Amino acid sequence: MVYQLYYWPTIQGRGEFVRLALEEAQADYVDVARRKNGTGELLKMLAQGATPSFAPPFLVAGEQTIGQVANILLFLGGAHGLAPRAQARRLWIHQLQLTMADLVAEVHETHHPISVSLYYEDQKKEAKRRSAGFLAERVPKYFGYFETALAAAPRGGYFLGARVSYADLSMFQLIEGLHYAFPASMARLMPAYPRLAALRGQVAQRPHIAAYLASKRRIAFNREGIFRHYPELDKQADK
User: Fold this and answer.
1) What is the 3-class SS of 100-128, one letter each residue?
2) What pLDDT shows up at residue 235?
């Protein structure tokens, strides 16, 4: 099966969590909107089908259209060995992914705390205040949770121990994105979470992921995606 991934063509965004799973699984897929006239195809598909997605990303697998990152990864995890077969452990990985989705939403709100329809420049003051609280309180709370989850896992460095899952790939992407958006703050925070730092390194060295990161398929972080670097939002790290 050749999957069709529908997501915006110029950003990593939420679509990157799906891309990483597809790349690790070496699944055949087409990043539709990156083709000629692809954005038009994406917009057309949003209004089609019996189970249309509310927004990108969504994945077309045969006759199925699957929306929402965690839902897509739940499907891909089962189809490509990136999730356990046992229900309790499968739900655990899904739970971790849903928690990451909450964190991703909070990341977006650091630069758009009032409205997504306003430009960043229109909510700069509020973004500084939101980012300060996010870095001081929310990142440590989330990272403490994930660090504890890794500590409770069997040996191997991943959430399942020695076996990689889509949650590990997503954790890697979250850490990468936060390092891009808040480099000074993350340099200060990460030493408190050695297991997360080790997981980041392990995922980056996986052969298929390393090849993807070095390829043109990997879109660079930029100020259009979820993770955006505005130096003024990272200034509290210097105090």
Assistant:
1) HHHHHHHHHHHHCCCCCCCCHHHHHHHHH
2) 75
